Protein 1
Amino acid sequence: MTHRPLEEPLRPVRPHPAEASWHRPPEPDEVDPAVLSALLHRHGWERRGGAAGRYGRWTPPGPGGSGTSLLVPESRAFPDSDDLLGEALVALTRSGTPSAREVLVGLAVPSDEIRWWRDAPSGPADSAPWVVEEQLRASARRMLLAGALATRARAGYYGARHRRAAAALLESVLVGSAAGGGRLTAFVPVGTGRTLAVRLHQALYAAREAIDYQRATGGMDAFDGAVEAGVSRELTDALIALVRGTEGARIAVEWAPAAGVPEDCVAGVEPVEFSPGDLPVLREAGARYLRAEPSVPVRITGTVVRMRRSGPRGEGSVRLRVIAGAEVPHLRITLDEEDYRIAGHAHLVGLPVRLHGRLESQGGFRRLTGASGVAPVQVEEAERDRLMKSLQENLDWFEEACSGEDDD
């Protein structure tokens, strides 16, 4: 039995709320001067003087930055504050500096920023092979998904559980452009994703502490307690993908200045670092989580979407689309002859079924074992009509299944 690869494609990510209008700067009266200054500082702009107590002069990072500058008021206490803010916002919009766009996104929608750095060999003029940037983006997405899963429940291994809800949490996240294949930033809106940023922040530090404990003592016990902080096999796999093939990697979470620092977190902490020497421990921890995650007793309600058995009688295999009872989209179940017949009849008349069993970690929590008590469930007429329409669209394979032919 194989486990579902963590990198299995998920639904396409929707644009960040700021994406459609980031090129249009916010109105000056919508901008807090202190927030703008904090974002400029975060993204590498340098303050080079200005009238003390009135405004600061900021220049962009990198070579040639001294040719451009912004005058940003320190407060709204002076009559020209709105004028200065308006000029600064227009200048940011017209700037070709990548950090200018990141500042505008942070102003448009207050977002916590998650940053990744990979110390990998680069090509001429800081270029990077295509595969290097793909690896960074893929591992960053896996890490965000692991953090989103941890907001749903605490588990050492999730498999297929909670993936729809976790993927939905990523829909408002905007990922910026990679710089040279070695750096990437994700903007996580405070309104919809702060729990994700907080959980990932805590999980990364817990993983780092558990690795240090293992390397100092040889014991893996710290990884058991780290589950409560959000560490899981999905996170260890994401860290392995991030670090593999590099000299090291770092991750930092920086809080939105407009929203402040969340409870139980601190500002200005150093990025969490991982090195190739951590890989054996991360692999061992992932295997430990996979072995230790127990099966779960569940009461499932679902609709039959596929049936198969080798002959006209005896037990058969059923695939259910889960409606309630488990945070997975589909389940595979083996039913005895009587329960298989009940499931078939329920499907023919457009009804879901309800049954009991144990959700097994083997196979990624996609299989229900010990299934029993299959019974049809009454539903509203509109839902029943929809189920009947689905049956008619798939009638050919269903007739083959009921007659004992193999649908594969």
Note: Residues 55 and 72 are 5 Å apart (CA to CA).
Protein 2
Amino acid sequence: MTSSPSLTDTPTGTDTDTPTRTETDSLGSVDIPRDALWGIHTARALENFPISRRPISVYPDLVNALAIVKQAAARANRELGVLDARKADWIEAACERIRAGEFHDQFVVGVIQGGAGTSTNMNANEVIANVALVANGHAPGDYSVLHPLDDVNRSQSTNDVYPTAVKLALCFSLDRLLAEHEQLRDSFAEKGHEFAHILKVGRTQLQDAVPMTLGQEFHGFATTLTEDLSRLRETAPLLWEINLGATAIGTGITADPAYAATVCRHLRELTGYAHVTAADLVEATSDAGVFMTLSGVLKRSAIKLSKICNDLRLLSSGPQAGFGEITLPARQAGSSIMPGKVNPVIPEVVNQVAFSVAGADTTVTMAAEGGQLQLNAFEPVIAHSLLQSLAWMTGGCRTLRVNCVDGITANLDRLDTMVSTSVGVVTALTPYIGYAAASALAKTALLTHRNIADLVVEADLMSRERVMKLISPARLSGIEAITAAIPVVDGDPAI
């Protein structure tokens, strides 16, 4: 990513001894750093919104989306004959360079801003105009040649550009999350296969329950992630509906009647997404429903992933005084005072990502509700909340997979000991020896911590061969289904 404009040759008419240039708007004049590719409207935003200390360039997807929207607009305006072909070509070339990663550092306005995203749109208009000017031998700010508003923003308003760019940026970010989410799902599924025949004690309400396999537990994690993948994928097409062409409030004022359909077609060609123009542009310009939908589904995914991380922390707790059924990869020293301590830092960080996503969902909900009449002024905080949540979830899925799940191992001796002495195993014998006998066995096992199979044989309730078959991993975990009627107590159990 280029960190400064390409000004190896000084543009014609530039005074290299002057550190600033002066730009003027309806409010007056402002001095701008001479080589800055942003202009007066961006300068005012920098002064007015010293809030987040985070420029919009922290979200490259948003910068690239703005460039794509402006590129589609330039193509549509050229096709409709409302913008000179030379100017359109300049704009398009500048947008291509931004999409390639150049000049992102010039997108400097804060992510949190008043004005419904106007400052972001102005920043984009000014950078694109000045990149084009410099590339064609003119000085930054020489707007008599190419103007940020009259040319780059032709047929547009912040109120249709900004939400369209935000939706497009969310599409890019969501695609990235889906790819990482799917790989994480596959990692859990692979562990499910690896652990398929390892018995363990199942638990309900943190109390011992009936046996299962460790593979079933991890396969359940994979199934949970599969369901959330489906919900996230269902959300993506909702982001393809745009209000580009609505201009200020949805009436299309200042735009050619054919502009909305034309620019949508060009946007489809540039992105590969099946964009459609909203049927009611007035409604679409003020509606933030799709952002709430995405936020809600994202929260669901984050919270369910966090629950899985809770389980991983519990299952690996110890290593001596906890569950100790699995071992997570040791990633770093866990204490500045306790030598040898290793903490489950990867699940912990994913938990925190989920907490942030849940909080962001509340922010998005409140911002959507706060919209008034023909516009929602709070889309900047919606965009920031969702783009951050998507980025953090993507990073969380990646680090959970690479730094944790792929390296999980089963503590076989610990698991075998816990299963062999677990009273939950007795549940599998109840249909054969009766509830009363099973209860007595359970009580003895709890008091003596002895092996269940040994107690059954010693009580002369059945042969060792028979009891071992009944408490085999396949039977205990339900993998081997029992479909025939089972004679109880005095009969000859069919095994």
Note: The domain at 161-412 is CATH 1.20.200.10 (Fumarase C; Chain A, domain 2).
Protein 3
Amino acid sequence: MSVNTLLMSTSARLRDRRGTLERRATASKAVRTSLVSLAGLVGGPVTNQAGEEVGRVVDVVARLYGPDPYPPVTGLILRIGRRRTFLAADAISKVHAGHVRLRTARVDLRDFVRRPGEVLLARDVLDHQLVDVDGVQVTRAADLYLAPLVDRVLLVGVDVSLPTLLRRLGPRRWQARPTPERVLDWQAVAPFAEQATDGPPEVRLRASRTALRRLRPADLADILEDLGRSERQQLLGWLEPEQAADALEEMEPAELENLLREAAPDHAARLVDEMEPDEATDALRDLTPEERENLLRRMPTGEAAELRRLLTHREGTAGGAMTTLLVTAHGDETVAQVRARLAEQAEHRTEIDAVAVVDDHDRLLCDIALFDLAVAEDTSPVADLLVWLAQFGPPVTVHADTPLAEAADQLVAARASSLLVVDDGDRPIGRILADDLLDAMLPERGRLHFRRFLQ
């Protein structure tokens, strides 16, 4: 991808994000001027219609995990003397900065019983880790902002700035003062708090799954690396195994090693099984022999056998960095038939950049780049492509025990994006990709995530 194309793509993403934010509640001037700080509200007085104080705010209850884009406040936890009690939201007349006024002089106070999807905002969300889906980063809630509407109060935003933390340490009159210029819209946030609700998982996870599904694997990898142990295991549970595996392939080796050790063995084995063979092999190499075997025993027999075979190749060799995912073809097949076989491997598109053509004894004849297949006629026999490609010489190959430095030299000389790995009988057994070669030879540089580069 050229620099201009990359910058244009990035600009388009930023415009899309800005358009999305402008449609959100916190972009409304009326909402922003009426925001109420949760940190400033906790500890504040609750007065009845006559202006008499009936208690103090201990916490605010909201239905965080439900169908509403902005969680509605369902009640307050009050401290009246030494007693803590629940006040339903329909008794609230007005929520001010640091103060709540009730509709009537008489209130119906009851014991608090948490309903599905409800959370205590101060206890369960404030100061907890969150994922900013728009900014693609892990952050921490320094304050939460409520917006009083005509008939209810909504949670609309979260403040993640350091000055807000300092504000909360200051005098009471500072604590109740919101700073809306630093607010993240709630729709851009996916919270993490396992203790936040006793409701069913499908209620708890619905909103966050929708938001996180939009993220790229590299972005998810960054988030997983930044989260704490319990939070990232929860995030992994939210993702489909295929999406989680894609993210794991983008993680730093040390972080991935820790993640696999933290996960339940059955879950870790399933994640490794979903990874591409070369990436899975790298992940398993970093574990102890006992940990590695524990995961392999929990995988399907065929996949485990393949990974064990890959693990027999030494690190620093072509065999130690190759993937065994190959698409092969024969000369009597048509281009259309080969394309159909490629379409069946769409989920592995990042691991396939060419098709190996073999004879009836599986010996390598040619390596056809996907571009050459793309521009060929559907009805053309693969044999015709072999004749045309013969003018460029035989395909460049390496053996499994070829040192990576030598493989890199051959890759550069061939000006290719991958090299086939063959056995002593010239039969393809794997492919080493350029990016995997770089990762193996330059482990100290880490993985280059474009988002982090921008930050």
Note: The chain has three domains: 32-196, 215-312, 328-441.
